[in-house]
Amino acid sequence: MNEDKPEIAALLKAMAESPRRDNSTYHKAMAEARQAFEDAETALGGPLQVKTKTKLTRKGRYVVKWTFSRAD
To answer: Is 52 in contact with 64 (CB distance < 8 Å)?
Structure first.
C-alpha cells in the first residue's frame, strides 16, 4: 500500500490543479426546467405526467421537447 501513495498523491495534485469546468449553463438550464415544472403544475392544477422527445438537428442543436399533462 505504501508504494501506491505517491501515485495517489500525484493524481490528487493533478486533479486539484486542473481547470474547473464552467457549469453556469447547466445551472441555468436546470433552473429553467424547475420553473417549467412549477408553472405547468400551477396551470394544470396538480400532479404531472411528463413525456419527452429529443432530437439532434442538422445545425447541431440538441432539442428537448417536454409535454406536460395531468397525472390521472
So the answer is: yes
Q: Write the pLDDT tens digit of every residue in 1-14.
A: 455 677 888 878 88
Q: How far is CA 22 from the centre of its chain?
A: 13
Whether 68 and 50 have beta carbons less than 8 Å apart is answered as yes
**Closest to 68 in 3D by CA, of 55, 50, 53, 54:** 50
Domain ranges of the chain: 46-72
* Cell digits of residue 49: 405526467
CB-based contact 53:64 (threshold 8 Å): yes
Closest CA to 54 of 44, 45, 46, 64: 64
**Is 67 in contact with 43 (CB distance < 8 Å)?**
no
